[in-house]
Structures are given as C-alpha cells and as structure tokens.
Amino acid sequence: MTNLASLLEGSAASYPDRDAVVLGDTRLTYAQVDQFANMCANLLVSRGIKPGDKVALSCPNLPYFSIVYYGILKAGATVVPLNVLLRGREVAYHLQDSDAKAYFCFEGTPELPMAQAGHEGFEAAEDCEHFFVITADLGAASPVEGYETMAQAMGSQSAEFRAVDVEDDDTAVILYTSGTTGQPKGAELRHRNMLSNALAGEVLFGADPERPDTYLCVLPLFHSFGQTVIQNGAFANGGTVVMLPRFEPVAALQLMAKEKVTFFAGVPTMFWGMLGSLDDAGVDVKELAANLRVAISGGAALPAEVHREFERRFGITIMEGYGLSETSPVASFSVFGEPARVGSIGPAIPGVQMRLIDPDPAQWRDAEGDIGEIAIKGPNVMKGYYGRPEATEEAVRDGWFRTGDLARVDEDGWYYIVDRSKDMIIRGGFNVYPREIEEVLLTHPDVSLAAVIGVPHPSHGEEIKAVVIRNAGASVTEEELVAWAKEQMAAYKYPRIVEFRDSLPMTATGKILKRELD
Questions:
Q1: φ and ψ at 142, to 5 degrees?
Q2: Do residues 464 and 347 share a domain?
Q3: Does the residue 385 lie in any domain?
C-alpha cells in the first residue's frame, strides 16, 4: 500500500536540503518541492477531487511538472500527463477519454500557445470541472480570462499534507499511447508498476543515494521514458534533475558541462545530434566524459555507428534499454558494468519475463523461427487500457503483454530488436526489416541519418524507399547511393528509391515519424 508520491516524500525526509530540480538559475530543494506538492494536493482536495479521480497535466520540462505530478498523487488521484503539442480538439479527446475532473495546463509560448489549446479542449470536455493555468512568472495574471492561475489557487493552501493511502493495484498514472492505429489509448499503470520501475535504477544503473547522480532531463516528462527513468528514478535515489524544456544539442552539451551531469538518457537522434555538435558547443569533451557515469538510450533502436562514435569520443558505453508505455516503461536493459553488445537491448530486467511469440496477431504460441514478437510479463505490465476491455484482452493474456516489436534472442538471453512488426516491409513475398537497411546506409561516409519505409508497388506489393540526410558537404547522388546499396545487400533488400532531405519529421520524444514519410 505504497503511494508513488513516497519517492518524493522519502527523499524530502532524508535529504531536505539537497537540490531536487534545477532550471536555469532556479534551484529547488527536496523540502521545497515536497511543500509545493503538498499545497497542490490541498488545492485538489479543497476543490472536491477524491482518490481515484483523474487529473490531467500539460507541462514541458519545468519544475511545475514535478510539483503538480506528485501533488496529484499525494491526493490519491491519478495523473494523466498530456503531450504538450496537442491541439484543442486533441486535448478535449484526452480529457473526455480519461474522465479527467481537473486540468493543469502551462501557458506556453507565442510559438506554442498551450493555454489557448488547453482552454479550448477544457471547454469541449463536458465532465472536466477545474482548469488551472500554470504561468512561468508565478505573479503573472492568467492568460485565459475567467480562470485562475495555479499560483493564485495554491497561494492560500497549507504546505502540510499526508499522502493518501492507496492500494498497490490502484492506478497512479494513465499514459496515452501514440495512436499509430486509431485513436490513442490510455495505459493504466498501477502504483506498484511505476514504483517497481523507478526503484530498479539501483540495480540497473548502480544508483546510490549516498553518491547521488545529476540527471540531464531532455526527455519529455509527459512521456514514460523521461518520467520513470529520469524524474522518478532520480527522486527515488535523491538525485538532482537538471531540466531542459526543449532539446537542442549545443544547449544540452553546455548544460552537461555547467552542472557536471553524471547521468544522460536520450533517444538515438539525441545522441546523433550531440555528436554532430561537439565542435560547436565549445565544451571540453574530456571533462564531460570524466563527469558522465551513465549514458542510456531507448525509445528506438540505436544505430551501431552512433554507438561506436559516442564510445570513441566519450570513452563510455551507451547502455541500451527497451520498453513501452504499457510496461511503465522499462522491460529490458544492458547489464551495468558488462561489456557492450552493440545492437542489443539487453536481457529482461530483474523480476520481468520476456519471450518471443508468433507475430500473427491471432496466435499466442511461441515463435518457431529465429524471429518473433516480444511478449512481456512482470510487475511493470499495465493494468489495461482505460475503458477498453476488448483492446486490453487483445494485448494482454495471462499477464503477458504483446508488444508489436520483432526481435531475436541470443544464448545468454540478450534481445536484439529486428523491427516493429508494423514497420516490416513485404517486397515480392520477402520480409524486409527497415532497421537492417538503415544500419547499412549509415556506414556510407556521406550518410548522416536514414529512415527506410515501404511504398506501394504494382507488382512487388511494396518497394523499399530510403529518406536520407547527407553529411555536411556531401555530394553523393540518389543513383550513386542506390548503386552502392545494391553492392552491400541482397537484391530484395536494397532501396530502389532514395530521397534526400534536410531534416526528418520527429515526435516530441525524438523518434522519427515514419508515417509522415512517403
């Protein structure tokens, strides 16, 4: 019967004067974050929010996110973090689908007027009763007429609050999936799901409260990776979270140097971006490397070339992990202190089981070949999709969650992602895995980044297309790259179509949006 908010309360009791969150010149101790979270919890209770009610939160990587997040949990309510890029119609959908009773929304910027979209969504959501605007300047007036700011609403609240007792199986957080097929679904994560994943950092990364890490928070906190591995993982071990609201490679490197960051977690495109910006950042790479204790990658497959170059420049091996919103998210990870196995997502983490099953959605039997779909079972697996029993039954059976990701496993139980089952291309009856093609393309000296997709073809069903970013100054042509690829791989695999671009569409978490490529 442990509330996820115990992560904050425990560190506030043990290390009250230690920095919990840092944003620019603002530094809040654990005692301060805990007091502000108590005020938020008192506000919610005063407005009629009861244990089990849902409270939505739209906020970038700012101290307000952690304050409201733990305040909601202290009140016994369920946190519903929302992507900060959602438009009004999308906000309304999430508020209605989650049955949110209250909604905290950051005001945003002129380029991203979040409060405008948030208010539009709130007005369209019939059952959401309370709307609080979070302002960057706590003394500022609400940008939405007729609605109070969080600072105004919390101002008269007590800084004392005892976290509500909850059951282990009560829902702590509802994380919405990306919705690549149909409308986004809310994965219900229990308190025990989130706690087990946050506390796994001690074993996975050698976390030690007596030698606390300084975490660079560039992964969006509304996403499962940043929320669990960075925020909750740091709070579980008395670490300091250095927040960067928007990832920019140069700014990230400079902040790592300034704050002596020891723990960096990112998606592959972040590592790629930082490697390409080392000369522009004006930082001492040797000093960065001396401070950095842990570097981890997740969210997508890390290209082998990026892995090797980072290790060459920083002298540290990137640990690769794997997980999904539905698994809180971490399911597997490289083993801390062991030599890297480039391309592997590691074995299942302690207490979690993984197996490969037949990728046919109708089948739940073990895979017969070398490649199968990953299924996961353990204390990290979600309760289900909120309000969608049929979708839950389709995805989870006897506690096993099927992921949609195809992989192989070696004799030591280390897994290697082959591709998303949805991304697999079938060309002329042959299965082609885009990641394999992307890895080969990245070995070409003129290729900086590549994304491979399937496009319709009248006779082959699908044809293979590569969308490529060239290195600065590179002059390789489409014809030359196709000819080179033809020499590197089997005839049914190499891309017949190449398109050069200056950038690739990405999600807020830095994943390449393949569905927007054609």
A1: -65, 130
A2: no
A3: no
